[in-house]
Amino acid sequence: MSGNITDKDINDLLRVSYEKGFRLIVERYSQKLYWHIRRLVIIHDDADDALQNTFLNAWRNISSFRSESSVYTWLYAIATNEALAIINKRKKNEAESFDDLASVFANSREGDSFFDGDEAERKLQEAILHLPEKQRVVFNLRYYDEMPYEEMSKVLDTSVGALKASYHHAAKKIEDFLLNT
Amino acid sequence: MKEHDEIPGKNPFKVPEGYFESLNDRIFSATTGAAKPEKAVNKVFRLRTAMAVAATVVVLIAAAFSVRYLLKSSDKQVVISTASLNPYPQSLLEDIDISMIEEEVAALDKVPAITGINDKDIIEYLVNENISETDIYDRL
Fold first, then answer.
1. Which of A8, A138, A164, B107 has its C-alpha lying 20 to 30 A from B92's C-alpha?
2. CB-CB neighbours of A99 under 10 Å
3. ipTM score here?
4. Of A83, A28, A22, which Cα lies nearest the Cα of A50?
5. Distance from CA of A22 to the nearest CA of B (A)
């Protein structure tokens, strides 16, 4: 059903009923947002927490959502912020730094409970984890979500030019990582 | 069972079995069960509210200025009367007529004495007023 729902349907329904409109939002975006968050925070439980917080924030602020805005960019902006909040919280706790997460990937094997990729995918994830935070977000949004730069510009409140440069640098670093490790 | 992301870009992560089946229900119970968002107010209503607030602020400012003006006015009166008070005690002293006061005091001594009444008459009067003779003699 979620495949047939458009943002226009959601906007139309939000004018009638917040609750019904919100149900449509959840049906259309819950899985997409989960994967977006998961790729940033890596761990499932963190992704689940961030997703719940994303929808809780969306629900609380739904009355201030303007129908002329895009539901898609609005939700991705909230989800990205929630994911980054978890990453920053984790950074403060040195015991769970991203180096540790990278080593989790380095030691992961096919059939692990959280990871089911092959060797090439494991190395790619490891390389992405070594990117600076902003470049990681940009790379994931572009590579996995195939988000147009114009949309990404709204989500991250950054110019298209800066995003293109960011993606270019990220791709180069990943290439170097894959070639040299 | 592996539940892959269906969007482009190969996704190597897994989620617990049945996670997505219950996800939406969990989100609904965590969100719509929370405090309901306020209904959006239309622009006219928002404008009316803003105008009411602005009018209230103007009235309050006007009232504050009025009070301040009145307080300033009353301050001025106090200043004038205080200024006029300085020579006042001296003028009062100058206006006192000592001889008039002496005449008033002397007049008090000239109250006519009651004549034709002796002690016996007074005692009889007091006895008639139910005051015992013993009490009268005790007080004499």
1. B107
2. 11
3. 0.77
4. A83
5. 9
